[in-house]
Specification:
alpha/beta, Rossmann fold, two-stranded parallel ribbon, 39% helix
Length: 299
């Protein structure tokens, strides 16, 4: 029996991987509009898109953290109000909504992984805009809304930290990288698989609605991620030099600690995502990253 899926933001880093994962399922009937095809801030367009869908995976988002600091209302229109439109449309039709959120809803002042029910307290406009979206899902879809917080995403599509490090390796002998921010590097393809598995578990009645943390196990710094990327790519990790965040002042403050706990996956009968370094090793064997690494080794 076929299942209809709507993937919003389907041209983005994560959205493309969700589409690729669903393409392996012969029973999935998938609609994947990009930003130019579906503006989630337009309620009529959202209602039309959601009609007839059984599962909605929301990968559409304003992701420019510094841009959100300058234009909070515009960011909130997408990350907050737009998500409310999606949740309202899903509530009207009975569709399940899987909404992708962020570790930036937390203040980043912890020393232990944040559990799913930890108090929120974003330190920047982007985090506040994403928290508004979470609240919309929780308010309108208490039984069929799933909030999946992720962080430090990288993958085969679009701009991301891992690709940037390999690109810079081709042009610079050494790179200064922040070593005082802690998080969980997460491969977008692995998260896509987890989202699809969660959607199936939701339809089967095995996964309680609520919050799940879709980040890798373990933790790293940006410097540690860069060094491991170099090491696994056949480059000298000592070319990465650790520095403090104060070396790279940004308009939006960043949480110093974004490590998340993963307890709720067991409630859904699913394992959390694997360790970040194992995911990185698998990701670096894919076409985009092997090509970037090869170019960096021949500089």
């Amino acid at each position: 029996m076929s299942t209809t899926w709507l993937v919003t933001g389907a041209r983005g880093l994560l959205g493309q991987d969700v589409l690729a994962e669903l393409a392996t399922d012969p029973d999935a009937v998938v609609t994947g509009p990009g930003r130019d095809d579906l503006d989630i801030t337009a309620p009529d367009a959202v209602r039309t898109a959601v009609a007839g869908q059984r599962l909605v995976v929301n990968c559409a988002a304003w992701t420019d953290v510094d841009g959100a600091e300058r234009s909070e209302a515009a960011a909130t229109a997408v990350n907050g109000t737009g998500v409310r439109h999606l949740a309202s449309a899903c509530a009207a039709t009975g569709a399940v909504l899987l909404h992708v959120s962020t570790d930036y809803v937390f203040p980043g002042d912890s020393r232990r992984p944040y559990p799913e029910d930890a108090p929120t307290g974003p330190v920047n406009a982007y985090g506040r805009s994403k928290l508004a979206g979470e609240r919309a899902v929780a308010d309108l879809l208490p039984d069929t809304g799933y909030i999946v917080r992720t962080a430090w995403l990288y993958g085969s599509h679009g701009a991301n930290f891992v690709a940037t490090m390999l690109e810079l390796a081709s042009r610079h002998e050494t790179l200064d990288v922040v070593a005082d921010q802690h998080g969980q590097p997460t491969w977008s393809r692995a998260l896509a698989r987890q989202l699809v598995a969660l959607g199936r578990a939701a339809l089967a009645g095995r996964a309680p609605a609520g919050i799940y943390h879709g980040t890798s196990s373990g933790r790293a710094t940006w410097c540690g991620l860069a060094r491991e990327t170099f090491r696994l790519s056949g480059l000298d990790p000592e070319r990465i030099r650790p520095v403090g965040s104060d070396r790279f002042p940004r308009p939006a403050p960043r949480p110093a600690f974004g490590v998340l706990g993963h307890g709720n996956w067991l409630r859904a009968g699913l394992a959390p995502l694997p360790a970040w370094d194992d995911q990185l090793s698998a990701a670096l064997r894919t076409t985009r990253f092997t090509a970037l690494a090869a170019a960096a080794r021949t500089r």
